[in-house]
UniProtKB/TrEMBL annotation:
Coiled coil: none annotated. This is 4-hydroxybenzoate transporter. GO terms for cellular component: plasma membrane. It comes from the Bacteria. One of its GO terms (molecular function) is carboxylic acid transmembrane transporter activity. Keywords: Cell membrane, Membrane, Transmembrane, Transmembrane helix. Residues 1-308 form the Major facilitator superfamily (MFS) profile domain. It is a multi-pass membrane protein. Its main location: membrane. The keyword Metal-binding does not apply. SUPFAM superfamilies: MFS general substrate transporter. It comes from Klebsiella pneumoniae. The chain crosses the membrane at residues 21-42, 48-70, 125-146, 166-186, 193-211, 217-237.
Length: 308
């Protein structure tokens, strides 16, 4: 996902970057939400094995389309000094009008490989890096906690397995709408204020579900709004962090963006070709999971920091 976010941030114009990144990342929520409804349908007709088979086959079907259609990073190709013809061909696929004789240059200063991770803690970036890490940790703790335990909680309240799966799907399906709204607001107002306010509204919805009794219809609406706010704010962070890397070496931007999201540990950083950093990210993830239990923690850590 960091690679996808970095790629979209590179090609999108500034006036639409927030919306497009959150819209792209909302695909994660759509897939998670539809998974609940699909699993409910499969479980009602087949065994639990069918859900695993479906989840394993679908990515294999999508893979050939990604190989053919997903563009390479133009900035990365320029930094690697690839032939101008190859760079022009990649840009022309996206609507450019370049020739093989076009000379491509980067404005970013060269940075040595040994210093790429240290960039996150230099020149006033340390505070923002730590704040983003903790915000990611806490937000995803809530998201995965609800994804894992919400069906069990709903079933303990008397709902069937199919109803619990569908209501859990509503939590994820609220993410795309929330992501689009957050992205639009981020392009027009203070990004940190929008993200903090959205997290706060999501916290209120979750608290109301815990202290008050609601019918099935009202509970479904609150779950949807909670997902819209929490997932939407989390998607907004995907558009927020690349702004902090705008003046970093493009050869390492994807890896640095992965460092801003160490909550997935080894797999993400391995995609950035930094295995040792991935193991470090996994350790940091443990700290983030412990801290995530603080009420309103997301709001606390994201509110004081503004991008430069």
């Amino acid at each position: 996902m960091p690679n996808c976010v970095t790629l979209v941030a590179e090609y999108m114009p500034e006036r639409r970057k927030g919306v497009m990144i959150t819209l792209m990342y909302s695909g994660f929520n759509v897939g998670s939400g539809l998974g609940g409804f699909i699993a409910a349908g499969l479980l009602s007709h087949y065994s639990w094995h069918s859900a695993l088979v479906f989840g394993g086959v679908l990515p294999l079907v999508v893979l050939p389309f990604m190989i053919v259609m997903l563009p390479e990073s133009a900035m990365n190709m320029v930094a690697r000094r690839l032939p101008g013809e190859q760079i022009a061909r990649a840009l022309n696929r996206l609507g450019g009008q370049f020739t093989a004789e076009t000379v491509f240059q980067l404005n970013a200063p060269p940075i040595t490989r040994s210093s790429k991770v240290a960039q996150l803690f230099r020149h006033g970036y340390a505070r923002g890096t730590i704040a983003l890490w903790l915000t990611y940790f806490m937000g995803l703790f809530v998201i995965y906690l609800l994804n894992g335990w919400l069906p069990t909680i709903l079933r303990s309240g008397g709902l069937s397995l199919q109803q619990a799966a569908m209501m859990t799907g509503l939590f994820q399906l609220g993410g795309p709408l929330g992501g689009i709204l957050v992205g639009m607001l981020m392009d027009r107002a203070s990004a940190k204020a929008v993200i903090a306010a959205t997290y706060f509204l999501g916290c209120l919805c979750l608290l109301s579900q815990g202290v008050m009794d609601f019918g099935s219809a009202a509970l479904s609406v609150l779950i949807f709004i909670s997902g819209m706010c929490i997932n939407g704010a989390q998607n907004g962070l995907q558009a927020y962090s690349p702004r902090l890397l705008s003046n970093r070496d493009p050869r390492y931007r994807s890896q640095l963006d992965a460092w801003y999201r160490p909550y997935r540990g080894y797999p993400q950083l391995h995609a950035g070709r930094d295995a040792d950093a991935g193991r470090a990210g996994t350790l940091v993830d443990l700290f983030g999971a412990c801290a995530a239990g603080l009420p309103g923690g997301d709001l606390y850590f994201v509110a004081p920091y503004e991008s430069r």
